[in-house]
Specification:
single chain; 144 residues; alpha/beta; Immunoglobulin-like; four-stranded mixed sheet; 8 strands
Amino acid sequence: MKSLIALSTAFISVVAISSANAANITVEMLNKRDDGAKMVYSEDITRIDVGDTITWVPTSKGHNVEFIAVPDGFDKPKKSKPSKKVEISFNEPGIYYYLCTPHKSMGMIGLIVVGGDTSNIEDIAGAKAVGKSKKKLAALLKEL
């Protein structure tokens, strides 16, 4: 019985420490970034650890977040409403491909790499991309 209590206490401690170490990263939805790029997120590729949370902030109006391709096991959320803050936690390692629905043909896309895992890169490469997003997605995948 003492072993079970000790094991339970250790497990709870590990979970509490893991949760306490999770980071919250902010990604802005922008009409223009400091580098001159237009209709973009503040980061093209965001690298995070398992358990981290990303908050997308509509710094410029009219943008949203829609996930196109995600790792197996991740419950893909519905696309967000334009100009609304979005907060999502990532507990599945892998690459996530998302875009701004109204500006996808202008290349407003982003990737998230969770836990350094790129094992689903072929799924992401085969995902639908339109307009300038096709070329940008290919370029971003080469950076991984």
